Amino acid sequence: MAQVSLAAVASRLKARESCQHEPVSVKHAAVLVPLFIDPLDGLSVLLTKRSSTVGSHQGEVCLPGGKRDPSDADDVATALREAWEELGTPLDAVQVITLLPPVLSKHFLSVTPVVGIVPPARAAHAPCPSPSEVEAVFHA
Questions:
Q1: Of 28, 9, 34, residue with least CA distance to 89
Q2: Number of C-alpha atoms within 13 angstroms, CB side, residue 76?
Q3: How many CA atoms does the CB half-sphere of 12 hold within 13 Å?
Q4: Are 36 and 115 in contact (CB under 8 A)?
Q5: Tens digits of per-residue pLDDT, 110-131?
Q6: pTM of the model
Q7: Sequence-distant (≥ 6) Cβ neighbours of residue 135 within 8 angstroms
Q8: What span, in angstroms and rounded, lies between the C-alpha atoms of 132 and 93?
Q9: pLDDT tens, residue by residue, 40-91
Q10: By C-alpha distance, which of 92, 79, 85 is closest to 118?
Q11: Is beta strand 42-50 parallel, antiparallel or unpaired with respect to 61-62?
Q12: Strand locations in the chain, DSSP E?
């Protein structure tokens, strides 16, 4: 399999037509799609397994993210805040590349994927998951 660089992925995503996507629901949420280069596996995305004690989505594999708080300025702020709360990812550790069109969740939330790059130095740093929200962290 050919190795893909983060720069190549970022370039392709940035080349997409940039536009504001309309939400698909009045309830907003966002997820971070944290991309990084794993030394053994190459291009990877960080995923979490939700705790069995959370109010919804117990035990599901997912991207870090959640509902928009009133204090969140936009979808990027929501995704970065949630990554901080769930994984301890510093807000300035992610280089946001683009926002993908929102999708409607099974709970009727308009969920916007926020694609970002985690620099190699940060990816090497093990996440510190919040045990009340996250049972496991892995990459694919």
A1: 34
A2: 11
A3: 5
A4: no
A5: 999 999 998 765 555 567 777 7
A6: 0.86
A7: 48, 49, 50, 51, 52, 59, 129
A8: 23
A9: 888 889 898 888 776 777 778 989 999 999 999 999 999 999 999 988 888 8
A10: 92
A11: antiparallel
A12: 28-38, 42-50, 61-62, 65-67, 95-99, 103-104, 110-117, 134-139
The owner of tokens 């944290």 is: 34
**Residue 23, amino acid:** P
| Amino acid at site 135 | E
Only one residue has tokens 């959370």, namely 54
Take residue 73 and report the two structure tokens written for it.
């300025």
Instruction: Identify residue 125 by its one-letter amino acid code.
Output: H
Write out the two tokens for 48. Answer: 């979490």
